[in-house]
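Practice set, problem 2.
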Amino acid sequence: MLPAQDRGPARGSRPAAATAWLRLLVRWWEARPAAVKDREFALVFTVLSFTSPLSRIGAQFGDLPVHGASVASVLLTFGQTLPIAVRTRWPGGCLAVAGTSFAVHQSLGCPATFGSLGLYIALYSVGAHQERLRRAVPLAATGGYVLFGVALHTLGSPHGLIDYLLIYLVLVAVWGLGVLVRRQRGQEAARRHLSAQVAIAAERSRMARELHDVVTHHVTAMVVQAGAARYLTESPDRLGDALDAINGTGRRALAELRFLLGVLEATGDAEPRERTPMPGRVPDLVEQTRAGGQPVELVEDGEQPAMAIGARLAAYRIVQESLTNAVKYAAGHETRVRLAHTPGWTEVEVTTAGTAAGTHESAALRDGGPHISGGRGLTGLRERVEMLGGEFAAGFRPEGGFRVHARIPTGGAA
């Protein structure tokens, strides 16, 4: 025999195993189609109605003299149990057949049967699943109950009016329970629909920000580079470098746009990490801007920790938008990008030299070019950072120029 301490864990694990098995059984049952569950339930309910001792448990109205079992009582019991197989699909028909069978069963003085509970199940089903004629079916059932009461009184039932009213209130309560469940189910469906709409709106807003960042940055860089190339026709070597820069910028823009198109075409089966557009690294972004003629310095303090996708993407977009604005409004002015990493946070700071009143814009963008941004840049960055639980600030510096600063938690989620 095992010691008590050896038998204890086995005993303790039995309730947990039973609970896990029960949960698995419930999930299996809930996953089955409603029509199949109704048929299976009706079959089990019918068998139980003829199984002792349940066969003698049931509802009785009227207190009429009880006769022995007969073929009629068996058929009427089937009439109260088998309609449950269609209680979800045709709840009104289920109640009509089960209710009529119950009324005849009671009027003939048949012995009590567990199948008489089918009346309550049918009433609940009408309240919970009736789609059409929601008012007509309860009114028709009320009329049927009145005729049933009159028939019982004619057959000599000792029940009075108060008894019939009390029984009617019980039946109404069962129907009302189904109505309550139906309303709760409708509210839950409306809540899920609203949550889906909110999620769709949030995804659209996120995609709008991504498109803004990609298009604004790369198109601005290409316009600036193309404008500068006009003045390099007499220097073939430098002209080739400028054209290569334009080509590289266009290729990067197409790559990021392909990422975004992949998100739009996602079916939902892919993992979030696979569906989130991940652009290049900040050093590549700085080098690209520097190749376009903008003097940019990159300073990175600390070692970059493992960052969530949303946090890493936000840091990249902040630098991207800031460099785009620097090229547009402070072309040729010294720009400094600083990244400071700690285990819990990443700070991003982009400063551009200039005057406090603002700096001159790029000559290549003077003919309507500044309107490319659409006014979404800094606002979108603030929303993105605050959504991650970070801090964001942007504005002119007292000594001149412009400063963008963000403090992003490394664990921020998209």
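Problem 2, part (b): a different protein.
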Amino acid sequence: MVARRKVAVVGAALSDCGRVDDATPYALHAQAARRALADAGLDRTLVDGFASAGLGTLAPVEVAAYLGLRPTWVDSTSVGGSTWEVMAAHAADAIAAGHARAVLLVYGSTARADVRAGRRTGTLSFGTRGPLQFEVPYGHTLIAKYAMAARRHMIEYGTTIEQLAEVAVQARANAALNPEAMFRTPVTVDEVLAGPMIADPFTKLHCCVRSDGGAAVLLVAEEYVRDCRTSPVWVLGAGECVSHAAMSDWPDFTVSPAAVSGRLAFERAGVRPSEIDVAEIYDAFTYMTLVTLEDLGFCAKGEGGSFVEKGRLRVEGGELPVNTDGGGLSAQHPGMRGLLLLVEAVRQLRGECGQRQVRRGDGTLPRLAVASGTGGWFCSSGTVVLGAG
């Protein structure tokens, strides 16, 4: 039996993010890819694996061609916001098995600019085919699905709207430390509650921002780490799970597929949730953060409300800094945010985050991070545990 190689993230970068009115999605892909390769200090000729989703008819073919790559391993898995954590898991497996030596994950979107220019409208629904045909006629929009799940948690466990608002407040506090965040002005619980209603119980600040932007991550086999200019961040374990297609198929609105992907990732990494120093969690809505914290094992089911209301998610003074860049609620959310979670986790473990840098109790840099993405309406989840080199 051939020994499996260790796999490290050696390049991580964002493209220009936020308000980008003068770039195409392809340009943002290329910008992020160039920056990730430069971050690693490696030449693109080493890249023989490529993963992309969400752009073009044949995403990995079209984007790879635009980047001038001819990969011999590709992945186009598309499961919404969790796509990039799932792709990272697949890439790590491929590298470990010797099927690739260096895999580049890339994403780019002009979601905000397209709406602004009238090239598209806001995403209210994913379509009307398949199982969705039984929900769309009743006005069951994407945000309504998340709002209904949040209301179920409130009824089941007594979670309050003020507790959900705390997620937005603490995300904004973290964003205030990030010069690349779109919104940095602190907000209060009262301000969150006073905003315009979007889908009961979510007011505007319970919902993610709409931005432009992209990201790229480069994973390599262990023998290439010595050639890199950055410290490696090791992929310790990963898990993935798909749950339901229609809300009527979802057994319990208070349990996300992260309950499975997280358990698998932690088991494979050989670590416990209590050992994690920093968590990057998909947060299209405040409820996503709260329920994912429960399902990853950072608190018991039903205790997410009390967990978040005590300031635990803050970079400054928090017991478990979460979404340290400000997350999708305040920093950036360019359509599918999952790859940005990996970039921020890597940067935190390498100590590159400036004012928002997380420190452990003894003043040292974090050693373990988790990135957990969610797709659709809690339909899919991918979780990756990372360790500092």
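Answer key, part (b): The mean pLDDT is 95. Residues 139 and 376 are 17 Å apart (CA to CA).
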